[in-house]
């Protein structure tokens, strides 16, 4: 089974790693066969599984249910579970809710925010819960941002994000997810924190890992498709098309063929 120390080793060796969102057992098994390195039970399930417009309606009970479904079927990937909207408003709440998803089979929790989460990161880590912090475009704050927009587009905003990362690393953050930021920002964060792997989604080619929502990379998402998405299903045919597409994604990430320049935000900082 992939562990946090494997991810740290991959970073040192410059071996990129793959991550996909996953919410159910059959997809979790497909990802085990394809040897996807890490799985995220993302609160994007609010959209992909439940049909909502955002992640805000997702509950901790939903996260526990989907974490159980995924963890039963995949013994290969490191499993990260999101703590949903407002479920970590205090460090104490974060610990109570982290306990639920960890007991359901997660090996790490992900929370969204900045340096203000330092105390929470410290408490969780002290209690044996490794923490991934999601920065940049954080979908739980869509109503604060006023939409799903590229973040850290100026030098000042980039420096503020780097400062958040530093404080979170000091508090014990073990992993970052960086979403929708200039490619240069992804590179700067990955280079600055040599012990902390960084997973990007729309953060350029220089982060240590990449993540996509599985429905996006299988071409199942209708409507507006984000710039950072590549449809890996389009290249497949035959009986094992889904597993082949997942495998193609994994190989494209580790061989550094994905993301290509057209999937990234090229903004000079
Ligand atoms: O919930 C989710 O799927 C996520 C990814 C977009 C990184 O947080």
UniProtKB/TrEMBL annotation:
Cofactor(s) recorded in Swiss-Prot or TrEMBL: Mg(2+)
Annotated EC: 2.1.2.11
SUPFAM superfamilies assigned: Phosphoenolpyruvate/pyruvate domain
Coiled-coil positions: none
Residues that coordinate or bind Mg(2+): 43, 82, 112
Cofactor binding annotation: Binds 1 Mg(2+) ion per subunit.
Enzyme class: transferase
Similarity remark: Belongs to the PanB family.
Function: Catalyzes the reversible reaction in which hydroxymethyl group from 5,10-methylenetetrahydrofolate is transferred onto alpha-ketoisovalerate to form ketopantoate.
NCBIfam families, per the entry: panB, PRK00311.1
Protein name: 3-methyl-2-oxobutanoate hydroxymethyltransferase
Species name: Acinetobacter apis
């Amino acid at each position: 089974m992939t562990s946090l120390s494997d991810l740290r080793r991959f970073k040192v060796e410059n071996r990129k790693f793959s991550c996909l969102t996953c919410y159910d057992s059959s997809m979790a098994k497909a990802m085990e066969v394809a040897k996807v390195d890490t799985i995220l039970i993302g609160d994007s399930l609010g959209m992909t599984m439940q049909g909502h417009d955002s992640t805000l309606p997702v509950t901790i009970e939903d996260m526990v249910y989907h974490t159980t479904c995924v963890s039963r079927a995949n013994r290969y990937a490191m499993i990260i579970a999101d703590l949903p909207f407002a479920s970590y408003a205090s460090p104490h709440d974060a610990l109570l809710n982290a306990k639920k998803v960890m007991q359901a089979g997660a090996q790490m929790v992900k929370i969204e925010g900045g340096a203000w989460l330092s105390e929470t990161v410290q408490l969780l880590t002290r209690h044996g819960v490794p923490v991934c912090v999601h920065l940049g475009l954080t979908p739980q704050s869509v109503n604060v941002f006023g939409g799903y927009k590229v973040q850290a587009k100026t030098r000042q905003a980039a420096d503020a994000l780097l400062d958040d990362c530093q404080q979170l690393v000091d508090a014990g953050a073990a992993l970052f997810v960086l979403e929708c930021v200039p490619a240069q920002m992804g590179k700067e964060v990955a280079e600055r924190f040599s012990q902390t792997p960084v997973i990007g989604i729309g953060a350029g080619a220089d982060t240590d890992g990449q993540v996509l929502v599985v429905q996006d990379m299988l071409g199942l998402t209708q409507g507006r498709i984000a710039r950072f998405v590549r449809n890996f299903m389009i290249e497949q045919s035959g009986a094992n098309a889904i597993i082949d597409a997942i495998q193609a994604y994994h190989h494209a990430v580790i061989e550094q063929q994905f993301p290509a320049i057209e999937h990234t935000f090229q903004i000079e900082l």
